[in-house]
Amino acid sequence: MAEKFVFEPTKIEQLKDHYDVIIIGSGGAGLTAAIQAHELGLSPVILEKMDKLGGNTTRASSGMNAAETSVQLDHKIVDSFEEFYNETYVGGGKQNNTELLKFFTEHGALAIDWLAQHDIKLDDITITGGMKTMRTHRPSTLAPIGGYLVTELLKWIAKDEIPLFDNIKVTDLLLEDGHIAGVKADAANEVQIKAPSVILATGGFGAGKDLLAKYRSDLLNLRTTNQPGATGDGLKLAEKVGAKLVDMDQVQVHPTVQQDTPHAFLIGEAVRGEGAILVNNAGQRFVNELDTRKNVTKAIDDLGGTGAYLILDRDIRNRVKAIEFYDHVGLVTTGQTIAELAAEINVNADKLEQTISKWNQAVKNHNDTDFGRTTGMERDISDGPFYAIHIAPAVHYTMGGVAINHQTQVLNEAGKAIAGLFAAGEVVGGLHGNNRIGGNSIAETVVFGRQAGQQVFKYLS
Ligand code: ADP
Question: What are the GO MF terms of this UniProt record (predicted)?
């Protein structure tokens, strides 16, 4: 077996006082932007405030959406940019920024190829809620995408010798004559680092109680799937230099989060995409499980606060590697039979058996007369042992953020670019409208991370 790769952050003594571009954040967007900028001949630096690298990206489990890819054709799936655009637009309540959405949907395939050229192969395909076509790309090992992507991108950061410092928190952006000139940051001491361009890749504010209190105080009592560093620093940094923020009240509550332990674990949409159903305490289905996150969350909330159970079998479990991990940390209940499982989770066994047998019939006929589900019906629930995972909604993703154009330039209130300031990833607002589709956030980090690296190069040329 290959030796486990361990990334060593750059030693603080090596921090220089000047770079071509400072990239704030080491998630998917920051790492991609850095590699792209380096490959164009620039000298980037990545500053990460946490001692753990990879941000929320490491927690992503389902995959990366893209249309018209060669991987899809290998799976005999014929897709189009237009359908990808339309399904994302409808899923986002038609509130998406259409300029960003167009760029996003038309550049996913290039991003998949770019990753493949970097030995990051996403050769398997699944589906997420709100999509009609299988376009969620993931590694053929079926491993969760986030950890895989971050590890593989870090290998390039190491190979390209791109400096990446952890435990450095950017506290201010420096402006000179209306142009970005660098950053102020807290390392062991306060430091100033000069650069003619900065890329904000700081992620969202799903763990930022102050911003949630300001924009969505109704969600303050919910748990979050986010890493503790997801506090919206990038939004505050950008606002201080005049950037416009958009859609700040659009916060995604993810429907399926296991939260009976001190940690809140997101149970990825691929679990439903591969065939799991949701049942209430009475053992009955109550929603099209692959409706958009917004609608599935509402259906679970309407149950009255007790949450619901994902139900699956061995066959489905084998299609999602993350379930092994969920089981390992004690989140999965097992029954050799459906009746045994029902007893374990305190649900009426006859009811659960009836529900599953009706569902299996729907899968067979490809016709869900109860809730109109049309996707994630490739396999039924008949291959024991059977599994249940108790879930409830939790704060997951912040759709709002800094305004950018499709060149990733950060815009001020008047819609004009702030010279030298770029942004990519969750820190950006507008792409997802009022509901982000599963698989679109990883895609966003790679598509717009690459674009930011390229546009910085153009800006500096
Ligand atoms: P994306 O998916 O958009 O790449 P992530 O959440 O994966 O976003 O990564 C964002 C990263 O930015 C996180 O690792 C977070 O800790 C880091 N970060 C946030 N604010 C700062 C800051 N002020 N200085 C340095 N790093 C930051």
Answer: FMN binding; steroid dehydrogenase activity, acting on the CH-CH group of donors
User: For 128-175, how does the pLDDT look when each residue is reduced to its tens digit (9 = 90+)?
Assistant: 999 999 999 999 999 999 999 999 999 999 999 999 999 999 999 999
pLDDT(352) > 90: yes
Q: Is residue 145 part of a domain?
A: yes
**Boundary-marking domain end, from 345, 360, 395:** 395
Ligand 1 centroid from CA 290, angstroms: 29
The fraction of the chain above a pLDDT of 90, given in percent, is: 96
184 close to ligand 1 (CB < 6 Angstrom): no
**Do residue 258 and residue 163 come from a single domain?**
no
Residues 10, 163 contacting (CB under 8 angstroms): yes
For the Cβ of 166 lying below 6 angstroms from any atom of ligand 1, the answer is no
Please give the pLDDT value at position 1.
52
Distance CA 40, CA 36 (A): 6
440 lines ligand 1 (CB under 6 A): no
Residues catalogued as catalytic: 293
pTM score of the predicted model: 0.94
Q: Quick check: 3 pLDDT over 80?
A: no
CA distances from residue 444 to 105, 180, 439 in whole angstroms, order as listed? 9, 24, 9
Grade residue 262 by pLDDT with cuts at 50, 70 and 90. Answer: confident
The tokens of 358 are what? 């009706």
Q: Residue 138: beta bridge partners?
A: 124
The predicted model gives 274-300 an average pLDDT of 97
Pocket lining: 436 vs ligand 1, CB cutoff 6 Å: no
Find the length of the chain.
461
Ligand 1 within 6 A of 36 CB?
no
Mutate to test the pocket of ligand 1, among 48, 199, 427 (most ligand atoms within 8 A of CB): 48
Strands in 64-65's sheet, in edge-to-edge order, are: 64-65, 136-138, 124-126
Tokens, residue 198 = 């900065």
pLDDT in tens, 72-118: 999 999 999 999 999 999 999 999 999 999 999 999 999 999 999 99
CA 72 to ligand 1 centroid distance, Å: 31
Residue 213 lies in a domain: no
146 ligand 1 Cβ < 6 A: no
37-65: per-residue pLDDT in tens? 999 999 999 999 999 999 999 999 889 99
Indicate if 358 and 448 belong to the same structural domain: no
Question: Looking at ligand 1, which atom is closest to the CA of residue 47?
Answer: 25
Domain count, the chain: 2
Q: Which domain holds residue 118?
A: 12-204+399-460
Q: Can you tell me the distance from the alpha carbon of 432 to that of 436, in angstroms, rounded to the nearest whole number?
A: 5
Q: From the alpha carbon of 169, which atom of ligand 1 is closest?
A: 24
CB contact at 8 A, 20 and 460: yes
Same domain, residue pair 445 and 338 = no
